[in-house]
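Usage

Read records sequentially. Each one opens with the input sequence:
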Amino acid sequence: MDQSDEQWRRRLSPGQYQVLRQRGTERPGTSPLNREKRRGVFRCAGCATPLFDAATKFDSGTGWPSFCDALEGAVATSEDLGHGMRRTEVHCATCGGHLGHLFPDGPAPTGQRYCTNGLALTFEPAE
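and closes with the structure output:
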């Protein structure tokens, strides 16, 4: 999804722009999606790509929406060496928007924790 920086600024809220396009992080505990427990799909707030099935969401206690798996082909990863540490950054495979980070401390069956900014997501409940 090829858009100019100005197009992204117009398309997204200031918070979404800061997270998705500037690789920012929202304050923990601020996203209403932390409390979302319905069946459905979490989508990229930038391009609406389906990213996570609600069945993979769990309460990690971190203050950010967390998932143990992503939908196949929906996310991509890269190495993040910022903030004096080595982490795995997770971004939308379609638009490249920054979603959060991936950690190896999640629940079975994957053992993964996709720690995701709520501002990077929208939720579509199942019908």
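Summary fields computed downstream for this record:
- The chain has a mean pLDDT of 94.
- The CA atoms of residues 42 and 71 lie 10 Å apart.
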